[in-house]
Amino acid sequence: MNLLALAAAAEAESATAALEPFIAAGITAAVFIISAIVLRSFRDVAHRSAGAATTAADPHH
Question: Membrane-crossing residues (predicted)?
Answer without folding.
Answer: 22-39
